Amino acid sequence: MSCDARIRPFPDETEVGCEQDADDHIEHVGVLRDYAYPGSTTYLRWYDDDRRNFHGEWPGACGLGPCTLPTGHNGRCAP
Description:
mainly beta; three-stranded antiparallel beta sheet; globular
């Protein structure tokens, strides 16, 4: 079973999921394919406490003003 951590690294609906096994880890690794250019592979690393991180399905945007971060995020909001 793989880790259910996900991140939206940009202020759009692009999501990247952690591709590691679902063991006890706080650093996640995911791959963004074909984003920079067709055929490209971009590796992303993020920590569980990154304010863009969420687990499972997208919980919806924060809802405090124009914030694009997931509901319940840590830290300041981001437009």
